[in-house]
Amino acid sequence: MPPAWQRERPRPEQTRPLSPHTGLSSRVQAGGGLGKVSGPDVSDSYKTTLQLRAYRGPMTPRFDAIGMVASDMAASVTFYRRLGLAFPEGSEKQPHAEAQLPGGLRLMLDSEEGIREFAPEWQPPSGGGRISLALLCDSPAEVDSVYEEMVGAGYDSGLKPWDADWGQRYASLLDPDGNDVGLFAPLHGATQ
């Protein structure tokens, strides 16, 4: 499978799903740009008006996915599955895998071998990870329990849980490639 930036994107006039969970879809007209869904089986994140075009003009880029290169695809898929991301069965054996995230974004993992199929000169960056993912937990207690569960399962700690002065319970883990994965929740009484 080609990397995300080489895949064909849906045209504005095509039907596209608005929610991977409900199968609802909406027809977006070429000049329109607005869509609205509602109903009891639609999550709150999908009950908002969608602005599909950020601006008028020949280009319509939009933030769609986060792509990361995995040195060990099986280890990375296992790590992110343990954090609740739903990678399809068999993803650990593929050169490319995607998990749909709440809100419509996707997390994409590509193996180093898969990257070298179209960029033979590619080399992994030296030094530590250069990105950080942040996962919102339901409560400060969940930050602690997820952190303890992951460290107990053998994954590396970045920062032990602590009450940050910006009003969050915060901790971080390192994924198998050394990328920082933050866990956070608002502290009781703190505003975000």
UniProtKB/TrEMBL annotation:
Q: Entry's InterPro entries?
A: Glyas_Bleomycin-R_OHBP_Dase, Glyas_Fos-R_dOase_dom, VOC_core
Ranges for region Disordered: 1-43
Domain of life of the native organism: Bacteria
Positions the record marks as coiled coil are none
- Domain (VOC) ranges: 62-186
Q: Point to the regions of Basic and acidic residues compositional bias.
A: 1-14
* PANTHER family registered for this protein in UniProt: BLR0126 PROTEIN (PTHR36503:SF3), BLR2520 PROTEIN (PTHR36503)
Name used for this protein in its record: VOC domain-containing protein
